[in-house]
Amino acid sequence: MSYLIGVDIGGTKTSVSLGNFRGKVLIRRVFPSEGVKATLSQIKRIIRAYLARYDRDLKRTKGIGVSCPGPLDFKKGLLITSPNMPTWRNVPLKRIFSRSFTLPVAVDNDANCAALAEKTFGAGKGVNSLFYYTVSTGIGGGLIINGEIFHGASNDAGEIGHSVVLPEGPKCNCGKRGCLEALASGTAIARIARERARRNSLILKLAGKRKDINAGIVAQAALKGDKLARAIYEQAAFYLGLSITNVIQIINPEMIVIGGGVAKAGPILFRPLVKTVRAYTWPRPYRSCKIVPAKLKDAVGDLGAISLLLKRFHLGAV
Amino acid sequence: MSYLIGVDIGGTKTSVSLGNFRGKVLIRRVFPSEGVKATLSQIKRIIRAYLARYDRDLKRTKGIGVSCPGPLDFKKGLLITSPNMPTWRNVPLKRIFSRSFTLPVAVDNDANCAALAEKTFGAGKGVNSLFYYTVSTGIGGGLIINGEIFHGASNDAGEIGHSVVLPEGPKCNCGKRGCLEALASGTAIARIARERARRNSLILKLAGKRKDINAGIVAQAALKGDKLARAIYEQAAFYLGLSITNVIQIINPEMIVIGGGVAKAGPILFRPLVKTVRAYTWPRPYRSCKIVPAKLKDAVGDLGAISLLLKRFHLGAV
């Protein structure tokens, strides 16, 4: 059996998996992300331990894949900068890991990796074109065309969180107005709830303090039937739905996959979302597009990094 | 020298060109479209006349390309139906022309053909990814990815006219609300002008009667400095600009090409349009994307049909 190593560097935690060509994770370690040096050292230590245990003479391990926040230059494997990890600047990830391990290294941003993971091992198996949404603190996306990540002219394809769904809408962190992220992200859901929850609201009871309201608490309240919480999720779902409509009208993909923490809310998000998409999209491309929740869980980043290796180095059929 | 035949079947007129591999049109005939039978017979007569004159023994002519309104099944070469040509239903164009001429035949819809024509012979030469807008009575589009037409799951990729740019906006002919076509097409521009032009307005003077106001007249009035006409074009440009922003954020193409009758208005449309795109799009993908008017003129459909042949049958480099 051959192995692939998948590394997922995130704003709060980093994970390293040893997996096989079929996307089975054999062993996985997670630790809190720290500064650049400490995090990279810890990743290397974990990889060395895996190799010592499973593949001492490096005969079966075929590569290291790395998923990390963007923007980055995926060809050079260079993390340029990241809003959530400000100390990570111009980090030549590919060079660093190639030198340490003399193995092929592939790097891509987290949303692209998750999209490819879902296409390779998850909800999108066998599908040629899909658009992946990750709806959590922010909203990101990845575009799969002809089975491959489509990067675009400046590696910014898939940045759906900053498409405009409501002209003159609320201000977004990116400086623009009416971005999807400002209307449907976890941050937006929490912000709206903090603004609107009354003193005796269930949302406030569950959170304790107004400032502790987050999207998960709003989802909890919605599940318990709280009207405001439901309305907030319906509104977020409406804008997400409009965005999906636009992706379908423009790209006509076979599938839309929705992942990220906010998607865990389930039907309180998906039901109104699908209703909006059905209402606003032409019938034929709507019927040709499955809209599904992401299938892969915590290790989606690690598996994305692994699926990158399979694609970039043509490491056999999956 | 080898020849390719390009046929462009439109709602009001049909054209047939004999061109070469470099997109030079050697001879072109245009006639008013009629019923299915009459139009097809006339196309065949013209092709026979070309062959009799230029290629009697069919040694140099390499194929027939056909551009026509959609929706269609481009693989089968079957025109399924068309809102603007209601008598054209399930017309097996590929079979009809293959049988008559024993030549390779390629068929695609008009917006896709125009997109590929601009990529092959026009504004997009050398570009790998572009999105083509045709802004006229309606708004259509074509998506070029990795140098090829991207058709999507149900041949509906590129239907940008029915992406939503203003939730709860004006009603569109397609039955939805807030579609780009309902806000920025020639029909929308004329409708808004008919609603808003005052008795002594320049628009009304140029048109004569209110019902005769069209987008071209509004453009004329705008060029002469009429404030209402300018405001109407600015508003249309704003929504077109938002749509372009979304295409750039989602696909990050190298180029946006804008064709169709409304694009002929020039700077009164392009200046506010580019201003909107710059304001709403992230700087890096914005800088990576050229926004340009279409370069090909009347024969864009014929050339699109010809460029289809070059792609589908790998008929040599252009």
Topology:
Two copies of one chain form a homodimer.
Chain A: E1 3-9, E2 13-19, E3 25-32, H1 36-54, E4 61-68, E5 72-73, E6 78-79, H2 93-101, E7 105-109, H3 110-121, E8 130-135, E9 139-145, E10 148-149, H4 181-184, H5 186-196, H6 202-207, H7 215-223, H8 227-251, E11 255-259, H9 267-280, H10 283-287, E12 290-293, H11 300-312
Parallel strand pairs in A: 1-4, 4-7, 8-11, 11-12
Antiparallel strand pairs in A: 1-2, 2-3, 5-6, 8-9, 9-10
How would you briefly describe this protein structure?
Chain A has 318 residues and is an alpha/beta fold.
Structural commentary:
The structure is a homodimer of 318-residue chains. Chain A contains eleven helices and twelve strands. The longest helix of chain A is centred in the last third of the chain and has 25 residues, at 227-251. Chain A has helices at residues 36-54, 93-101, 110-121, 181-184, 186-196, 202-207, 215-223, 227-251, 267-280, 283-287, 300-312; strands at 3-9, 13-19, 25-32, 61-68, 72-73, 78-79, 105-109, 130-135, 139-145, 148-149, 255-259, 290-293. With 318 residues, chain A is of the alpha/beta class. In chain A, the strands form three sheets. Chain A has a five-stranded mixed beta sheet with strand order 3-2-1-4-7, sandwiched between helices. Chain A has two domains: 3-109, ATPase, nucleotide binding domain (Nucleotidyltransferase, domain 5); 123-293, ATPase, nucleotide binding domain (Nucleotidyltransferase, domain 5, 2-Layer Sandwich). Chain A is globular, with a radius of gyration of 20 Å. In chain A, helix 7 packs across helix 8 (227-251) and helix 8 (227-251) packs across helix 9 (267-280). Helix content of chain A is 40%, strand content 20%. Chains A and B meet through strand 9, helix 8 and helix 10 of A and strand 9, helix 8 and helix 10 of B.
